[in-house]
Write a structure and sequence with these properties.
single chain, mainly alpha, two-stranded antiparallel ribbon, 6 strands
């Protein structure tokens, strides 16, 4: 026979301390992801610009040298061979830009950083106001979960390991800051406990 405490009644979900704490945890993680994607964007954008500038400079030098030197020969070396080598270098840099796709990665990380920033601001904006003035709790949780799931699927696996480690080093010293699991710190799953008619969440077990 099922215990009466096992009965599930779907109804209105009200704001309470446990939900506030859960959202605060999500907000901490959103800040972490926003920082990591911003760092990854800066790195990829820098590499993309270096390759692009290198390619453009080599193209300009090659074109100008062809016009000036023409068929000049120096110590038995045809300058055309030098220009041909420059052309090969240009092809290699263009191939690297295409294969490594730093510009594409930079754009993706920028989009993810922006999306995590939107999620962070939504949660902060809701938690800062009194509970009685907030949006419907059930609806807000539904849509914020959808936003988090979407941006997590789109970009979390693309964050380099050293940036995740850097995020851990940056935010771990902050007391009670909830870092994402991908940064190297795993939390035990929180569950709902009905204690004498008053729901509460068990404390997480931290595993380093």
């Amino acid at each position: 026979m099922a215990n009466e405490n096992d009965d599930i009644v779907v109804g209105k979900l009200n704001w309470n301390r446990e939900i506030d704490e859960m959202l605060a945890s999500w907000c901490d993680q959103a800040k972490s992801f926003e920082w990591m994607h911003t760092e990854a964007y800066s790195r990829c954008d820098k590499k993309s610009k270096i390759i692009m500038i290198t390619s453009n400079v080599l193209t300009a030098i090659c074109g100008l040298s062809n016009v000036i030197a023409g068929g000049v020969e120096i110590n038995g070396i045809q300058m055309a061979w030098v220009f041909g080598s420059l052309s090969i270098c240009i092809s290699i840099t263009n191939m690297l830009q295409e294969k490594l796709a730093y510009s594409v990665k930079a754009f993706e990380h920028m989009q993810c950083a922006n999306n995590w920033g939107i999620i962070r601001r939504k949660i902060e904006g809701e938690l800062i106001i009194p509970r009685g003035s907030r949006k419907d709790c059930k609806t807000f949780l539904k849509f914020i979960r959808q936003d988090i799931n979407q941006v997590s699927v789109d970009g979390n696996t693309k964050i380099p390991k050293d940036i995740r480690e850097g995020c851990f080093s940056k935010f771990n010293p902050i007391p009670n800051f909830d870092l994402p699991d991908i940064c190297g710190e795993i939390e035990h799953t929180k569950i709902y406990i009905n204690d004498a008619g008053s729901g509460s969440l068990i404390e997480p077990l931290m595993v380093n």
